[in-house]
Amino acid sequence: MKIRLSNDFLYQLFALLISVIVVHTAYVTVIRPEARLIELEQQQQIAENPDYLPERSLLVIIRDFEQEACFILLFWAFALLIMKAVAVSRQRDQLDQNLIQVSEGETILPEDARHHARIIEALPEPERSYLYPRTLLTALRRFRSTRNIQNVADAITHSCEAEIERLESELSMIRYIAWAIPSIGFIGTVRGIGEALGLAHKALEGDISGVTASLGLAFNSTLIALVLSIILMFALYQLQLMQERLVLDTQTACDRGLIQNLQSQ
Questions:
Q1: Which residue has the higher pLDDT, 221 or 78?
Q2: Quick check: is 108 in a domain?
Q3: Is residue 3 over pLDDT 60?
Q4: Between the CA of residue 255 and those of 94, 110, 135, 148, what are the distances in Å?
Q5: Which residue in 58, 82, 102, 221 is deepest, having the highest Cβ count within 10 Å?
Q6: Measured CA distances, 5 to 10, 63, 70, 218 (Å)
Q7: pTM of the predicted model, to two decimals?
Q8: Is 80 inside a domain boundary?
Q9: DSSP structural state of residue 130
Q10: What is the DSSP string of 123-168?
Q11: To 5 degrees, how large is the angle CA 123–CA 132–CA 2?
Q12: 55 in a domain, yes or no?
């Protein structure tokens, strides 16, 4: 378990570093230079034709530091989502395995529980830590000690409920990112409005370019942050749905593969 936690931490750290490097490189080499060229071209056309209406460019909208931070967090969150989705997919594949090997018409007595538990314990370490074998081991040990099928069913239920709580707690970092993205957008809004107020005297003199640029920062950062937050929350809820289905299917598999084959006497 300690090794798994260490690997998860290293993956999260590595994913964050990669997100920072990739997004910042894209901003430095492509987004900000292109956005600046677009702005200069639009300013030139406005100077030549006062009736010219510049089109909103996506590169101009996402060029500021707040939007860059939002994209870094978004890609980091998606890396975490992918890691957890892959783990769920692997565990779902394990549900198709016949971990409780009984022939048709055969029953499992309390004396047989140890034999079936050893088969599961012989699985490789990564697979043995999955929900399905862990739940089966808990159920078999409970059956061996209590010789009561209802206690086995309760043990399976409690194991699945504990797994739901564990999976829920492991999503805390992604939920924090989903909260942080719009918060960063609002920081950009405050910064943009503050800059606009600082340039109010120039607007009174007739130069409103600085005020409009600052207000553009304010609204663009909020727009991008909210859009990215919506995308992230959709992906998060899809992952939660996968995890909940995994737990329910595991409980069903334990019922069909184990409980229905138990015989207390």
A1: 78
A2: yes
A3: no
A4: 15, 16, 11, 14
A5: 221
A6: 9, 36, 26, 40
A7: 0.84
A8: yes
A9: S
A10: S-HHHHTSHHHHHHHHHHHHHHHH--HHHHHHHHHHHHHHHHHHHH
A11: 65
A12: no
- Note whether residue 35 is domain-resident: no
Convert the pLDDT of each residue in 119-165 to its tens digit.
888 888 888 889 999 999 999 999 888 888 899 999 999 999 999 99
52: phi then psi, degrees, rounded to nearest 5: -70, 130
Angle subtended at Cα 50 by Cα 46 and Cα 55, rounded to the nearest 5 degrees: 50
Alpha carbon of 256 to those of 24, 131, 139, 163, 224: distances in Å? 52, 16, 13, 19, 48
* Paired residues of 108 in beta bridges: 262
How many domains are contained in the chain?
1
Tokens 């538990």, residue? 117
Q: In this structure, what token pair is assigned to residue 56?
A: 């909103």
Angle made by CA atoms 9, 127, 172, in degrees to the nearest 5: 35
9 pLDDT tier (thresholds 50, 70, 90): confident
The pLDDT, as a whole number, for residue 102 is 78
Q: Tokens for 126?
A: 């990564």
Q: List the domain range (segments joined by +) for residue 128.
A: 70-261
